[in-house]
Request: fold
Amino acid sequence: MVRKDLSITFMGVKFPNPFCLSSSPVGNCYDMCAKAYESGWGGVVFKTIGPKHYLIDEVSPRFDALTKEAEPFVGFKNMEQIAEHSLEENLADLRRLKKNYPSQVLIASIMGSNEEDWEVLAKLVTEAGADMIELNFSCPQMTSHAMGSDVGSNPELCRKYCAAVRRSTKLPFMAKMTPNITDMCDPAIASLEGGADGISAINTIKSIINVDLDKKVGLPIIDGKSAISGYSGKAVKPVALRFIQQMRNHPKLKDAEISGIGGIETWEDAAEFILLGCKNLQVTTGIMQYGYRIVEDMKRGLEHYMDEQGVDCLEDLVGLANKNLIPAEELNRDYIVYPEIDTNKCIGCGRCVISCYDGAHQAMEWNKETRRPNCNHDKCVGCLLCGLVCPVGAIKPGERVLKANRKPRNLAKLVLQDSIEKL
Amino acid sequence: MSKCYQDEYEAGYTPRLVMEEASRCLLCLDAPCSSSCPAGTDPAKFIRSVRFKNFKGAAETVRINNVLGAICARVCPTERYCQQGCSRSGIDKPIDIGRIQRYITDFEEATKMDILEVEKPNGKKVAVIGSGPAGLTSAAYLAQKGYAVTIYEKDAKAGGYLRNGIPEYRLPNAVVDKEINRIVKLGVDINLNTRVGEDVKLADLKKENDAVIVAIGASKGKSFEMFEHNRKVKIAVDFLKQVKARKGNVKLPKNVLVIGGGDVAMDVVTTLKLLGVENVSDVVYEEFKEFRASKKELQSAQEQGVSIIDGYAPVSCRGGTVKFKHRVIPADLKIKADLIILAIGQVTDPAGIDLEFERGEVKSKSYRVGESNVFYAGDIAHGEKTVVYAVRTGKEAAISVDKYLGGK
Reply:
C-alpha cells in the first residue's frame, strides 16, 4: 500500500502535514481544536485573539450560502468577527492545546488596533506556547476600521504592525492578506519588510451573496438589515490562486513562504495551492459544511498524488506550476485546436451547438436526422467551449493546426490543457 | 435494449455518474449504512472519499474491509443491509451503494492498485475447506496475518457458489477470477479437485495444520419426493452451474416452470429469459408481501417478462405437469411445462466431514468446534445465507483462529 510522508517545514516549523484550520469559527475553543488534531489536522490557527479592550458582540444569524442549481454551497458568507471568548480563556486554551498536542502545530492568530495591542498580544501568545503567529490584517467584517481588512489594504500599517510584533516575539509569524485590494504584493512586501516570515492568503472577499426579493434585504437578515461581509468557499479558490501566483511571480516575493487559503475541500484543491507555491494550507468553509473529517481524504489523496508524481517529499511539489503561468501576451497564439467529437459517447443533447452558436462562433452544426453535432472548421476558432458544456465528455481537444502564415514551431512539444477531461 | 446472459445486467457508473450519486449522499452523522454492513465494508467512508475525489482511498477502504469487495458490490442485496437505514430516504431514495462500490473496485482494477499487504510469515499453518466467499475471506485474512494457508476445493475451479451459482449477468466469472487472484497473490495455496473426506481426510488436515476452517457451504439443492426420478425436473443450483460453465450455451425448451421465490429462483427465471426461453412461469410458495428474493432480482425477473404466481404450494407432479393449491384461498393451479426447475433451497453436503449439524448449521456457539482446532464459517455458520454474511463469518472465524493461535 502506498504511504508517503506529508510532513513539511513552513517558516522553520515542521508540520506533520500541511493541513491547518484557518482562523475562524472552526477553531474557536479548546475542544474544537483538540478534535481537529485528533482528526489528523497538522496544525490549527486558533481563532483570532483581539485586544482586551475590544469587545465582541455578534449578530444573529450570521451566515448565508450561495447555491447553484442542486449544489447547496458554492460559496459562503460569514459575518462573524474574531474570538468572542475572553483573552484569558483564549490564552488558557492555547496553553492546554500545546500541552496536550505537542507534536502538532499551534498557530495563534492575533489582531490589534494599534502598535501597543500588537506587541502585547504577540507577547501573550508567545508565552502561552504558540509555535507561530498569524497577524490578521484582513477580516472584512470588523466593526472597527482600525482593525481588519482596512489595515491589510494599507501597506504602511502592515509594515508598522509587523515591526511591532517583531519587537515582542522571536516566534515566526505570517501576515494574513486581504483579497479586497488590487495588488496584494504591496502589503505582502511591506509585511515582510516589517519583519514577517511569511504570508497567508487569502482572507474572505467582501460580498453580498443573496438579496431577499420580498423584503429587499441582503442575506442574512438582521433585524431587517444586512451588511457586506466575507465570502469564502469553493467559489473563491480561483481568486486565491491568482493572488498567490502574483506574489510568487514578484521578484521580492518569489521565495516567500506562503500559507494558502481559499476554498480548499479536496486533495486536488490542496495540490493546486502547493503547485502554486504554498507550503502550508488552511481550511474553514469545507469544515463548516462537512466537518474536520474532510482532512482524511485530503491527506490520503495527496499521498497518492505524491506517489503518482514520483516524489517522496511534499516540498518537491511546491511551486512547480508557477513558471507555467505567464503573461497573456507571451502565450503561443500560432495555432488552433479543433474539437474532436467522440460519436460513440455523444448522446445527441445538442448543448455544444447551443453554446457554440450563442456563446462562440457558430461552428458547431446540427444534423437534425441523426441528432448529432459536427464541427465546421471554417468557422471554428478552437475555443473549446463545446467541450466544457458537453455532459458526457464526448468532446476533447483534437487536431492542432497552424494559423495561416505562422511559422511552424515544434507542434509535437505543445502541451494541451486537459481541464475539460476532468469529469 | 435487449440484455444477454453473458453481459452484466446493470451498467457501471461513469465518473460523472458516480460523483452525482456520491453527491446525493448526505454524509450523515451516524451513517446507518456503515453500521449495517455485515462485512464492515464502511460505505460512509468510501462514499465520502468518492465525494472528495479520493478514489484510491475509497478503493483502499473497500478492499481492506472486504476482500471480496468487487463481488459484494455486484451481488449484495443492499436494500436489506447498508441501504436500509439510509438517511437520504428521508428526501427520496437511498444511495445506490452497491453501484458506487462497483465503480470503486472497477477503478481499483483499472489502475492496477495493489492494496493488501502480508505480514511476515508466523510459521503457522491453516487449512480452509471450501473456496466460496467464506473460505476465500478467511484465507485472505489469515494470509495477511502471516499464516501459511491452503484451501481445499472439490471442484476444478475455485469460487464455490460465486463461480457456480450466481449467473454471469450478475457476477461475471472474470470478476471472480480477479478477486481470487488477489487472494492467491497474498500467498494462499488452492488445491483444486480435492474433496475432503475422499482425497484427504479431515483428521489428517487437523494433524498437519495448526487449525482448520470448514467453509463447505450449502451447495446441494433440495427436492420434494413428488419430483424424484422425474427426467423433466432439474435442480436450480445444478442448472445455474451448467449454464455458467457453458457460458450460456445450453439448449432449452419453450415452456419452463420454476418453483421457488428466493434469489436463486430469481436467478433461474431471469437466466431462462436472457437465454431466450419464451414462457417462464414461476410459482412461489410465499405471497408477494413475504417474498424472500431481493428487490433488484425480483425487478429484473419482472422486467424480463417472467410470470410470477404467488401463494401456491405444489401438491403433485406427473411428467411435466405440476398441480398446485393456494395456501389460503380455495384455488387450484395446473401447469404443464417442458422443463421444471426446483429452486426451493439448498442444504449442506457434509460427506466426509464429521461435524454435528442442526438445521444446516454447525451445533456450536462460537466459530470453533468444541475444544478442537476445527473452526467453521459461511452458510454452515449461524446467520443469514448471503455472500456478504459469508464474508462476515469468514472474517470472524479467521479472527477466532488467529486468537486461538496466539495472534495479537
Notes: The longest helix of chain A spans residues 294-309. Chain A touches chain B at residues 1-2, 265-268, 290-291, 293-294, 296-298, 300-301, 304, 391-393, 423 (CB under 8 Å). The radius of gyration of chain A is 24 Å. Residues 417-423 of chain A have pLDDT under 50 and may be disordered.
